[in-house]
Amino acid sequence: MSEREYIALEAAGRARGYRDIGLPVPGYLEPLFAEATAIRFPDPIAHEKARLELLRGAHPHVSRYSILLAQHNQGYYIPESRIFPLGDNRDNSRDGRHFGPVRLSKVLGKGAVIYWPLRRIGAIQ
Fold this sequence. Notes:
Layout: H1 3-20, H2 30-36, H3 44-58, H4 63-74, E1 82-83, H5 96-99, E2 102-103, E3 113-114, E4 122-123
Antiparallel strand pairs: 1-2, 3-4
């Protein structure tokens, strides 16, 4: 994604934050917000961080916003006996960054074959 697209995503996140707290969206965010809707593969983390920053500023007494924002800024803690699955396409994967660590007991199998790209077909080693 380009720098301009990240700016538009952050503006969209702030606009959503304004809507979440019941305030009208400032006019300066509208053109950028419209730009964000045209991004083909948006980065959901950039959008969510901007929204959480606005919500934390509006409601400093609600610890949930601070905790979620810290998780986005500092990363995740992965406890023993859990894994953190990640997709191969950072901007377009619904993976551990969206649902968090997964218990090993919930894992049904493991990858055995690489089938894409075609030049890399073969067993996973």
